[in-house]
Amino acid sequence: PPRRARSSAPTAQAPPPAARIGRARVTARGAMAGAFSLREVLAAFRACVTERREVLLGPYLCGWQGLIRFLHSLGAVFSFISKDAVAKVQLMESYCGGEQRERYVSLQSMVEYELASGLVDTQKRGGRPDSGCRTVLRLHRALRWLQLFLEGLRTGREDSRTSVICADSYNASLAAYHPWVVRKAAAVAFCTLPSRNAFLEIMNVGTPEEAVAVLGEALPYICDVYSITQELFAQHKLLDLP
C-alpha cells in the first residue's frame, strides 16, 4: 500500500523528545483502544527512568496508554477506572505539548515548576484547573492497583480466582480514595472477571507461561517508577492532594 504522506508542518517549535512521545502515542481516546501488548508497556516503563532517577513523562504516558488498552480489553468491567485514566492521560498530554512543555519533560521538573509557580491547589479552593501534580497523583494511585493486580496474576496458581486477586489489590490501593458507591460497584464488577489464563492470553505475548515471564520483566520497572514517584510526592507533601 502507498505510504502516508509526512506532515510538512514546521518543526521549530517542536516539544522535547519526551513530550513528543506523549503527543505521538497518547493523542486521543481512540489511540488507546487498540490491542494491548504487554511488551509495549514493558518498553515504555523501561524507558521512563533516567540515570539521574528522573521519571520522563513521555514514556510514562506511553506506559499508561498500554495499561488503558489492557483495561479496555476487559470491556465495561473497569470503565470506572479506565475513563478517569483516559481523561488524566489526555490532560497530561496537553501539558506536555503546551506552552510550558519544557517544564513537563520529567516528573521532577513538573513538580518543581508547579510548586514554584503556585499552580498546585493544596486547599481544594476550586475554580482552578487541575495541576499536573494532582493529575499524576490520580494516575499514581491507579498504577499501584494495577501493579498489585498484575503481580497477583503473575504469582498466582492456574486456578487462582482473579476476582479475589483484583479485589485484594483494589482494597490495598484505590479503594481508600473512592466513595462507597464506587467501591460497591467495583466489588460486583470483579466477580465477573475471566480466569487467570484468560487474563494472561490478553497480554498478547504467547502462552500463559510466556506472559508470566514478561510480567516478571515488566513489573520491576513499573515498581521502580511507582517508588520514585511516591518518594518525590512524599518529599513535597503531595500525596494527600484533594
Automatic annotation (TrEMBL):
ATP-binding keyword on record: no
Gene Ontology molecular functions: ceramide 1-phosphate binding; ceramide 1-phosphate transfer activity
GO cellular component, one term: Golgi apparatus
Subcellular location(s) per record: Cell membrane; Cytoplasm, Cytosol; Endosome membrane; Golgi apparatus, trans-Golgi network membrane
Keywords: Cell membrane, Cytoplasm, Endosome, Golgi apparatus, Lipid transport, Lipid-binding, Membrane, Nucleus, Transport
InterPro entries registered for this protein in UniProt: GLTP_sf, Glycolipid_transfer_prot_dom
Glycolipid transfer protein domain location: 57-204
Catalyzed reactions per annotation: N-(9Z-octadecenoyl)-sphing-4-enine-1-phosphate(in) = N-(9Z-octadecenoyl)-sphing-4-enine-1-phosphate(out); N-(hexadecanoyl)-sphing-4-enine-1-phosphate(in) = N-(hexadecanoyl)-sphing-4-enine-1-phosphate(out)
Membrane topology: Peripheral membrane protein
Pfam families for the chain: GLTP (PF08718)
Keyword Transport found: yes
Gene Ontology terms describing biological process: negative regulation of interleukin-1 beta production
Region feature Disordered, mapped onto this chain: 1-20
Family: Belongs to the GLTP family.
Name of the protein this chain belongs to: Ceramide-1-phosphate transfer protein
Source species of the chain: Atlantisia rogersi
Lineage, broadest ranks: Eukaryota, Metazoa, Chordata, Craniata, Vertebrata
